[in-house]
Specification:
The chain folds into two domains: 312 residues, FAD/NAD(P)-binding domain (3-Layer(bba) Sandwich); 159 residues, no CATH class. It is 30% helix and 21% strand. Strands 1, 2, 6, 7, 8, 9 and 21 form a seven-stranded mixed β-sheet that branches. A five-stranded antiparallel β-sheet has the order 12-13-14-11-15. It has a three-stranded antiparallel β-sheet with strand order 3-5-4, with no helix packed on it. Strand 4 and strand 5 form a beta hairpin. The longest helix has 25 residues. The protein is globular, with a radius of gyration of 22 Å. It starts with a strand and ends in a 26-residue tail after the last helix. Bound molecules: flavin-adenine dinucleotide. Flavin-adenine dinucleotide binds next to helix 1, strand 3, strand 7 and helix 11.
Length: 492
């Protein structure tokens, strides 16, 4: 027997985007249901620090609901303050469990109906209209009918099952960014680690090292920094590889010294060739990645300053898939939109994080700095159908553009925009396309979201204190290098 549930706004997937979409829809008066197949809310945002609230001019670009969330988390002792950084602009180190708890609290306060351990398995398509989804859970099959559905599954599952256009991977070969299963080390000696970062020979932060002024400024602050982002230590990894202690498709230490004094988050496991929409490929990726964890722990203990007494504390509950299906919308955002800092007439949120591509067929990253850009409502509306919106990783954008829009705060901002637009449309009894854009923008602005109307000047004080990387940096290397060419690196 199939059970039935009716709702006005249905959000599929409760990651950074889905939580904000559901909160915004409910707060704007819509009956809202949030479906999630895990037993917790937060998706990947519950496993990582949050980057990208600011742009390279250290201006706060993502405000509204995401800012409210991070402030509440900080006030409750579950997050650091913003820590500024010349490459990532800013980071907030969060207590992942505190975020999971707060996410449920906020949804309950807003009246969102949460369905956990519920997997969306089919899309209800009636002509050109997406009318909801079928969910499987312990109760059986549930038909969830909705006026508007928002796909925040990260995989574009609603779109794919509803024959809505999507793309996956880069245009040349369809490969997506390398995924990572994040894990945490405890028992780190913070002063010894910082001393290791200060040793120029270790090159702990590759982006900054070529710029002596930036490096000097960073060294001045590093002892007092709540969170320290790492992307480097290549010489130590080369040494370990040469000694036969390391065989993973990664050549840099990627991770974050979190705000907890003895804790470090490792973002280095990886495989190449994953198809995130194929269960067999995902299972093989997990198998390969679990084998990498003991090696990496051993590498830290033996080679990285401050980690001799460290041990494995926690493995994230889900594989970090950086990129999957991107749903094609009324507008497809491109890298140029970000690099040029485009201002769209139908702007509903903003971003300024750099394009950060974890190489699909190599090691390390391809990176390109961007200017503060807006995200148009049209990129949140699925093409050629009615009643389907999307936010987060499955935004309508190219492989390159989504490599910037995918960070947590920017996904949250898109979620707030999609949820607000959906609630306003439902209240008027029309589609989102028929809802005046000015009404959506006014609602967002009055609820604190930055859509380009109250953008501050560059933060000259912080620019002076930290410096800035040039807009165009030297290219990094790592495509099809030796470390990424071994049989074990690939899952296909
Ligand atoms: C390894 C890694 C490191 C990263 N590092 C950072 C970082 O340091 N800082 C930062 O800001 N960003 C970082 N990012 C990017 C960022 O974390 C993610 O892109 C962002 O959190 C994605 O949010 P989302 O809501 O779009 O998707 P997700 O977090 O993937 O959420 C999707 C949710 O939908 C659920 N779901 C999927 N399919 C279904 C279905 N059929 N039925 C029901 N539920 C479903 C999933 O269980 C999940 O909870 C990183 C990403 C990765 C992978």
């Amino acid at each position: 027997m199939t059970l039935t549930h009716n709702t006005q706004v249905l959000v599929v997937g409760s990651g950074a985007a889905g939580i904000c979409a559901a909160l915004a829809a409910a707060r704007n008066g819509a009956e809202t249901t949030l479906i999630e197949y895990n037993g917790f809310l937060g998706g990947i945002s519950s496993t990582l620090p949050w980057l990208g609230f600011h742009d390279r001019d250290y201006r706060l670009l993502v405000k509204g609901l995401p800012l409210e969330i991070v402030k509440r988390l900080h006030k409750a002792g579950g997050a650091s303050d913003f820590v500024f950084d010349p490459k990532c602009a800013s980071t907030v180190s969060i207590d992942t469990h505190a975020w999971k708890i707060q996410a449920v609290e906020m949804c309950e306060e807003a009246g969102v109906r949460i369905m956990l351990h519920s997997q969306m398995v089919e899309t209800l398509r009636e002509g050109d209209r997406i009318a909801g989804v079928i969910v499987e859970n312990k109760s059986g099959r549930v038909e969830v009918r909705a006026d508007i559905t928002i796909d925040c599954s990260g995989d574009g599952d609603v779109a794919a099952r509803g024959d809505v256009a999507w793309e996956k991977g880069r245009t040349t070969d369809g490969l997506v960014q390398a995924p990572t299963l994040v894990f945490k080390l405890g028992g780190v000696d913070r002063p010894a680690f910082i001393a290791g970062c200060k040793d120029p020979a270790n090159n702990y932060r590759e982006w900054i090292r070529p710029y002596p002024e930036l490096w000097k400024k960073m060294m001045k602050r590093i002892d007092s920094m709540d969170a320290i982002i790492c992307g480097g230590f290549a010489p130590l990894m080369e040494k370990a590889r040469a000694a036969g202690d390391l065989d993973i498709p990664q050549t840099r230490v990627v991770g974050v010294k979190t705000h907890r004094p003895d804790e470090f988050l490792v973002v280095m496991t990886r495989v190449l060739g994953l198809d995130p929409t194929n269960a067999q490929s995902l299972s093989l990726a997990y198998a390969r990645i679990y084998q990498q964890i003991p090696q990496i722990v051993g590498f830290f203990q033996k080679y990285v300053p401050g980690f001799a007494g460290a041990s494995l504390r926690e493995i994230a509950p889900m594989l970090g898939v950086r990129e999957s299906r991107r749903i094609m919308g009324d507008y497809v955002m491109s890298a140029d939109d970000l690099i040029e800092g485009r201002v769209f007439d139908d702007a509903v949120s903003m971003g300024g994080y750099h394009i950060d591509i974890h190489r699909p067929a190599g090691t390390w990253v391809d990176s390109r700095n961007v200017q503060a850009y807006t995200i148009p409502l049209r990129s949140l509306i699925a093409r050629d159908v009615d009643s389907l919106l999307m936010a987060g990783k499955c935004l309508s954008a190219t492989h390159e553009a989504v490599a910037s829009t995918r960070v947590v705060p920017i996904c949250m901002g898109q979620g707030q925009a999609a949820g607000t637009a959906a609630a306003l449309a439902v209240a008027r009894g029309v589609s989102v396309r028929q809802t005046p854009i000015s009404a959506i923008q006014d609602a967002l602005a009055s609820q604190g979201a930055e859509i380009g109307r109250s953008l501050e000047e560059p933060n000259w004080e912080i620019i002076e204190e930290l410096g800035q990387l040039p807009l165009v940096e030297e290219e990094s290397t790592g495509d099809r290098d030796a470390a990424s060419s071994t049989q074990l690196a690939w899952v296909r």
